[in-house]
Amino acid sequence: MPKVHFVSPLQDVTVEVKPGTTLLDAAEEAGAQVGHSCGGVCACSTCHLWVKKGLESLSEQEDAEMDRLDQAFDVRTYSRLGCQSIVGNDDVLVEITQESLSAFMDENPQIRHQLEAEGKWPLKKA
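Below the sequence we write its predicted structure tokens.
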């Protein structure tokens, strides 16, 4: 089974998933801090991720995903929406975007408050 590795300034987690799993479902299973304001139905861009390895093994982008990514921040050639990206047979390395991480914090104020108290949120600019 393929592994999906999620990285962000706050986390580094890996999960093994069955082929056919979306990156968003993999993130939830791993406890990765990926936003999903619309519930994963391609109605927003808060699950915007950068796929650093394994992009070619994911499902192809469809028009709805491309239209949503047009509304996302800092879109790159390896940008995908977690809710629309289906894992194939290869391992995938994913970087959680600032957009997605911020959405996750907005959706989970208890985690955000804890990180604020620890001085870990908001992220400091380098």
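DSSP finds four helices and five strands in the chain.
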